[in-house]
Structure formats: structure tokens, C-alpha cells
Design a protein that fits this description.
Layout lengths: L27 E3 L5 E7 L9 E7 L9 E2 L4 E8 L2 E4 L4 E4 L4 E4 L6 E3 L6 E8 L4 H14 L5 H10 L3 E2 L1
Antiparallel strand pairs: 1-2, 2-3, 3-10, 4-11, 5-8, 5-10, 6-7, 6-9
Length: 165
């Protein structure tokens, strides 16, 4: 393993850091009531495509995607609070504070909050894909009650590099 090719070629460095205060509210809410609150901590757009980092705060109602995989990006999960079921392609594990799951490209995975209590985690995508459009479309579907046909779901998933298994 070695360092990647240089992406910054200057000699003196630059003041280019960006702070996102913890007090900033969620960027998106999916579902009614407490639903799922999504914080766009560091998007692919704000990290020059390096990664996408999202804080995912789930309410007490069951939520989370079915098993799926991505062709273009890795996905990692770090449980901050509560209990989140993590699927690694072989089986489900009860993830609690500090547990971590890394999934390479093509790795089947899923997560669920079925605990009846709120739970939160960080989700990291590398490289930084534009996942916000996917999350926002899911929120719109939930908010409007729009019903998609199986073909429409397949098309939505494919547009966002998500392949259900």
C-alpha cells in the first residue's frame, strides 16, 4: 500500500478547511414523525469527490434498506448510538456504539433499526458519489406517498448505483 498520486501540487499549502458546526440541524428528514434525520456532514461536492459522510439519525420505527450492493463505491457504517442491525452479506449483526462495518464495491450489505428506540450512525461513501439526490428522492416518495412500480424502483436504484438482491 502506498500513498495515492498528489492532488495538491502547491508548495505552501492553503487555508481551505470547512467547518460544519454540530449545532447545524439536519439537511433532510425522511418519513413522518421523528423519521430519519440526515446530516450532510461532507458531501462528494464539498470534499472534491474524495468521500461522502452522512450522519444518519433514525427514529424508533423500523427503517433501513434491504440487502443491496454498489458497483462504484465503498460504504462504511459506524454506530454512534442505539442498536442497528448490520448485514455484511453473510448474516446480520446487532451493531452498537463503536461497531464498524466496511463494505467494498460489490459487497452485499444492509442496515435496519428494529430496536424500537432511536439509533444513529455515520455512513461513509468512497469516493464521494452524489448520494444526496438519492436520499432526497426517497424523502419525496415518503412525503407524497407516491407509489412506484417495480420497474420504476429498478430505474431509480440503477440511477443511483444501487442494485437490490
Amino acid at each position: 500500500m502506498s500513498y495515492p498520486e498528489a492532488r495538491y501540487l502547491g508548495e505552501t499549502g492553503e487555508a481551505s478547511g470547512v467547518v460544519r458546526p454540530a449545532s447545524q440541524g439536519p439537511d433532510l428528514v425522511i418519513g413522518e414523525g421523528p423519521g430519519t434525520r440526515v446530516h450532510y456532514v461532507g458531501t462528494g461536492g464539498s470534499t472534491n469527490g474524495a468521500f461522502g459522510l452522512y450522519k444518519w439519525e433514525m427514529g424508533p420505527r423500523p427503517s433501513g434498506p434491504s440487502p443491496h450492493f454498489h458497483r462504484t463505491m465503498t460504504e462504511s457504517f459506524y454506530v454512534l448510538s442505539g442498536t442497528i442491525r448490520l448485514y455484511d452479506g453473510k448474516g446480520w449483526t446487532e451493531g452498537t456504539e463503536g461497531d464498524f462495518l466496511f463494505v467494498p464495491e460489490g459487497g452485499i450489505h444492509a442496515f435496519r433499526n428494529e430496536s424500537g428506540e432511536p439509533a444513529s450512525m455515520l455512513i461513509l461513501f468512497t469516493p464521494g458519489a452524489p448520494r444526496e439526490a438519492y436520499f432526497e428522492e426517497l424523502a419525496e416518495i415518503a412525503a407524497t406517498g407516491r407509489q412506484l412500480s417495480p420497474e420504476e424502483w429498478t430505474e431509480l436504484y440503477r440511477r443511483h448505483d444501487q442494485y437490490m438482491v
